[in-house]
Amino acid sequence: MSFPIFTFDTTADEVATAFAQQIQGKNVLITGTSMNGIGFETARVLAKHANLVIITGYNTERLALSEEAIKKEIPEANIRSLILDLSSLAAVRKAAAEVNAYTEPLHVLIHNAASPGGKFKLTVDNLETQMAVAQIGPFLLTKLIASKLLATRSASYTPRVVYVSSGAHQFVPGIDLNTVAHPDPAKYTSGGGYGQAKSANILAAIELSKRAKGRINAYSLHPGVISTNINQKEESKADLIAAGVLNPDGLPNTTGSIRWKTMAQGAATTLVAAFDPRLEAKPGAYLLDCVEANDKIAPHASDLDTAAKLWTVTEEIIGESFSF
């Protein structure tokens, strides 16, 4: 079977149409699905084809709005809402217990949620918020519901875990493993925190694929530069204006070198990572503009020694080992 060649301009709907057969019958969980975000667009498009789409968020009202919007457009969609606050390990455990109580197995887990930058902020577990939401919470969630993913494995199917990372991982020199467990406000900058968190996503995909040994395949990706709800949060707006990503009025800067994607284009690479059969032989791959782009990973984010150490540090933080 031949599949289309995807590009920068490819939309999520185009990807879903190309892989409709692969998506059919699948159960997918997506974190961070508030409206006006790429997680919502991913869920909306998948709802047209998948057996079950589990949408998550920490805000009950916003989650209800997302479910309502999808069901209004696609009445036959099978949508299930799950309250999930990735900044709290206790909340992650509660959500995971709920997922494990579902009668259905899980084919794909998409880690899409991100925390806006801004000033140094600790979670209830005394972790830096951006790293907690991007790496530590998702690590614990994956560990706790891994059996749900493994239950879908067969001779013809390998379950997938997808991490929505960012090209911004290249703007930091590396991950300070000491501050992952012991955050230091003196070493923190908003952009640095974001870059380290997104570097962690890439390392997590590489290490998870390595340890799973073909039982689960993990991928990471840069979705592109998209004007989403996170850009408009006060915590992140000032940094984006300072970096020239947004104009002083808070709107996208379209006059510079940045090529902006629409929401539909922004969600496309996530769907490729989740369903493209051509990636089956490339576990741990990093995607850009809907294709594998391992050559675009900064050296610190593809270092196997760092990936293994980050895994161990995260195990120590959650107080559990994660092995297959």
Number of strands: 10
CATH superfamily: NAD(P)-binding Rossmann-like Domain
CATH architect. name: 3-Layer(aba) Sandwich
Q: What is the general shape?
A: globular
Q: What's the pLDDT, averaged over the residues?
A: 93
How would you characterize the largest beta sheet? 8 strands, mixed
Number of domains: 1
N-to-C terminal Cα separation, in Å? 32 Å
**Quaternary organisation of the protein chains:** single chain
Strand order of the largest sheet: 3-2-1-4-5-6-9-10
The helix/strand series, from N terminus to C terminus, equals: HHEHEHEHEHEHHEEHEHHEEH
What percentage of the residues does DSSP assign to strands (E)?
5-15%
Radius of gyration: 18 Å
Low-pLDDT stretches are none
Helix content: 40-55%
The helix count comes to: 12
Query: What is the highest CATH level, the class?
Result: Alpha Beta
Offer a few descriptive terms.
single chain, 324 residues, alpha/beta, Rossmann fold, eight-stranded mixed β-sheet, globular
